[in-house]
Structure formats: structure tokens, C-alpha cells
Specification:
single chain; LLPH-like; elongated; 5 helices; basal RNA polymerase II transcription machinery binding; about 0% strand; about 140 residues; mainly alpha
Length: about 140
């Protein structure tokens, strides 16, 4: 980076601002979180905001309820449904609808379109020649 006087001065001033705004931001965060100067949080109004439950009671409830499917099995079923991949033609790289894959760049799409058009024209010409030979 540049070593001019101006850049040194700006760097110095940014450091001072960072320090000053850091103190203000910390005070604001403490105020929002309800943390006092001595580091304790206010737990008076916590019942209005959320219900507090211990981990033991949650585990006991979980043991009482029989599980039909575990979370992993349910996740696998969902993942299998979501993994429907479009099938692309290996030569043209297009799917059933004629669209190119997302990962193919625009430049490559143009290039492939030109190649595919030439291949199609070549097949048409060959087909026309075959028809003419059959007539003769």
C-alpha cells in the first residue's frame, strides 16, 4: 500500500475512529442485551419472552414418544426426492427441453450451438442425398 503522508494520516484517523466507535457499539450491545456493568443479565422478564425448559425434561419427553422414523431416515427420503437431476445429451449437452446446463458459460453455449447447428445441417444434407440416390 502507499506510504504517503496522506495515507498514513488517514490510517491513523481510522484507528482512532475504530476505537471510539467500538466503545459506543459495545455499550449499545450491552444495553440491547440487558447486561449490567457487573456482567449479569436481567432475568426478570425472561418468562414473558420465552419458556425455559431443562435438557433433562426434554430428553424424558423424547424417550416417552415412540419414533416411527429417525431423523436421518427422514432426511434421506427427502434428499432422494430432491435429487432429480436433469439428463443431458452427451453430444449436445442439452436436456429434454433443449436447455443447456447452468454451469455452462454463455461463450461455451454459443460455441456448442454453432457446432450442433453444423451437425444438424450435415445430417439434413446427407438425408437429402440418400433420398436422391433412392429415386435414381
Amino acid at each position: 500500500m502507499a506510504k504517503s503522508l496522506r495515507s498514513k494520516w488517514k490510517r491513523k484517523m481510522r484507528a482512532i475512529k475504530r476505537e471510539r466507535y467500538g466503545k459506543k457499539e459495545l455499550a449499545l450491545l450491552k444495553k440491547v442485551l440487558g447486561i449490567d456493568e457487573n456482567g449479569d443479565t436481567e432475568m426478570k422478564d425472561i418468562d414473558n419472552i420465552a419458556t425455559v425448559i431443562d435438557a433433562k425434561s426434554i430428553q424424558e419427553k423424547r424417550k416417552d414418544v415412540p419414533e416411527e422414523k429417525s431423523i436421518e431416515e427422514a432426511g434421506k427420503v427427502l434428499m432422494e426426492i430432491d435429487q432429480v437431476k436433469p439428463k443431458y445429451n452427451k453430444k449436445t449437452l442439452r436436456d429434454e427441453c433443449g436447455n443447456y446446463p447452468e454451469w455452462l458459460s454463455r461463450r461455451e453455449v454459443k460455441k456448442r450451438a454453432i457446432v450442433n447447428r453444423k451437425r444438424k445441417d450435415k445430417l439434413k444434407r446427407k438425408h437429402i442425398k440418400d433420398k436422391q440416390k433412392k429415386k435414381n
